[in-house]
Amino acid sequence: MAAADRVCVGAIAGAFGVHGEVRLKSFTSEPRDISSYGPLTTEDGKRSFAIQVTRPVTGGLGARLSGVETREQAEALKGTTLWASREALPNLPDDEFYHADLIGLEVVDTGGQVLGRVRAIYDHGAGDILEVVGQQVLLLPFTRAVVPTVDLVAGRIVADPPGSDE
To answer: Is residue 153's pLDDT more than 50?
Structure first.
């Protein structure tokens, strides 16, 4: 399965307890939904896990992964990212996007001048911020006012950065 056909939906933060449970960080908008996207695979695709969320824990969720029975097995997975098939994810409304679809897109200003490419998306609680890297690093609020156009087909974002009309 090609990388474009999969989306990173979580990561294993370490073991939780002594019976093979893991501490799971979910990157889904509803954290518990991570278990509903079918078996999740490692980034290299070599391992696959069915996920059963057991309880909320500090910094994430407690979960059982198929085939993981001991604390040592759980601890060995620390740092492993978990990937879902794009087909398993829900379709989004027109004005919502998966972060994976935005990373790497070219960003131009309203006059067509290239500002750079999206390197990362951050969410510190007050809304998403796009990190755009070009001749300089820009942090742009991902709002309709600052980012009026996202064209996934063309692979391009049109942005109107604050202070750009001075």
So the answer is: yes
pLDDT-based confidence at 130, cuts 50/70/90? Answer: very high
Buried-exposed string 94-124: b where 16+ CB fall within 10 A, e elsewhere = eeebebbbbeebbbbeeeeeebbbbeebeee
Distance CA 70, CA 48 (A): 17
Contact by Cβ (8 Å): 130, 107: yes
| Model confidence pLDDT, tens digit, residues 1-18 | 455 688 889 999 999 988
pTM of the full predicted structure?
0.71
Domains within the chain, CATH numbers bracketed: 3-88 (2.40.30.60), 99-159 (2.30.30.240)
Q: What angle do CA 50, 43, 5 make, to 5 degrees?
A: 85
What single string gives the DSSP state of each residue in 33-82? GGGGSSSEE-TTSS-EE-EEEEEEETTEEEEEETT--SHHHHHHTTT-EE
